[in-house]
Design goal:
Blueprint (H helix, E strand, L loop, with lengths): L1 H21 L5 H7 L3 H9 L3 H8 L3 H7 L2 H28 L1 H21 L6 H19 L9 H11 L10 H8 L2 H9 L3 H28 L1 H14 L1 H4 L3 E8 L5 E8 L2 H8 L5 H27 L1
Antiparallel strand pairs: 1-2
Helix pairs in contact: 1-2, 1-6, 3-12, 4-5, 6-7, 7-13, 7-16, 8-13, 9-10, 9-12, 12-13
């Protein structure tokens, strides 16, 4: 029974990661870090190696499943997939109709999560402080990068997949946002709508190479420089708040694959400027409630995780 409860909880953590990945600017890696499964996720991904793959070719599928912590990954993947299919319309609706409340919620969630994670660092020193500052600067710089014109070639599609998938295990940076910066966001959406399986296959191969390589690097850094690495990852989360700021002025639009106009470039505004420049109510009360709800949700998850760890 305890095992079933554990995997049901893991499934819901996967759903939370999937919901975050739908929103440009929010990373599933942040949710993994918040919910306490980040390091286990890295270990499971890095266990996919030459030795484990040999088991597949030998037909020893059960041993392969056990060697890569298959039950953990399966529960997580099912949760992510469920969330993407069931919540994508709700998240899209909230992004279009209630953007201030949605961005405020994620701002509260990410801010308090970074603080809780930083409080868990037992050994503070100058290197940790520098890592936090560098993480903030790096994430802020990435969120300010303008989209680029990308080469119209398959090798760049492969490279884009390898870079974007890193956001899945890198807190604070969104994979869809990285694709937007690399100029591949629209191309991948078009490939999906046109069922261009060759292009999607090249992109997926890049994703596979990227996640297997990058997860090993992060795992190595955590094993050798735990406090500094956690400081850097927390800094990424804090720096990404620039992208999550609720009050934005859209400066340019892009045309989606369905022909709809979607916000492309935005500029952050103070609430006092929002009504005059955008012509809409800044909804301060909604923003504050959503922000506090994000904070309370993380506190609830943190308390639940502490309770379960005692059982």
């Amino acid at each position: 029974m305890e095992t079933i409860k554990k995997y049901i909880l893991l499934y819901f953590k996967g759903m939370a990661m999937g919901a975050a990945d739908i929103v440009p600017g929010v990373s599933g890696g942040s949710i993994a870090l918040i919910t306490g499964i980040y390091e286990k996720l890295l270990r499971s991904i890095t266990s996919v190696n030459a030795d484990s793959i040999k088991l597949v070719f030998k037909g020893e599928f059960k041993r392969f499943y056990q060697s890569v912590n298959g039950s953990f990954l399966l529960a997580l993947i099912l949760g992510i997939g469920t969330s993407i299919f069931l919540l994508s319309e709700l998240i899209t609706y909230l992004m279009d109709e209630e953007p201030i409340g949605l961005w405020s919620f994620f701002s509260g969630l990410i801010l308090i999560s970074a603080i809780i994670i930083l409080k868990g660092i037992q050994r503070w020193h100058l290197g940790v402080v520098v890592a936090v500052i560098l993480g903030i600067i790096a994430a802020y710089f990435v969120t300010e990068l303008p989209p680029m014109t990308s080469p119209d070639s398959l090798w760049f599609t492969f490279v884009s997949g390898a870079i974007a998938i890193c956001a899945m295990i890198l807190p604070g940076i969104s994979g869809s946002f990285l694709l937007l910066i690399l100029g591949q966001y629209q191309n991948i959406l078009t490939a999906l709508s046109d069922r261009d399986f060759f292009t999607l296959g090249v992109f997926a191969t890049g994703c596979l190479v990227g996640i297997l390589s990058f997860s090993r690097l992060i795992s190595w850094l955590l094993s050798k420089f735990y406090s500094v690495t956690i400081g850097l990852l927390s800094g990424f989360m804090l720096g990404s708040l620039n992208k999550l700021w609720p009050w934005k002025l859209v400066t340019s639009y892009r045309t989606s694959s369905s022909g709809e106009e979607k916000p492309f470039l935005t500029e952050n505004l103070w609430p006092s400027e929002y009504s005059s420049q955008v012509g809409s109510d800044p909804e301060l009360a909604v923003a504050i409630v959503a922000f506090l709800f994000g904070i309370l949700l993380v506190f609830g998850i943190d308390r639940l995780a502490a309770y379960l760890s005692k059982e």
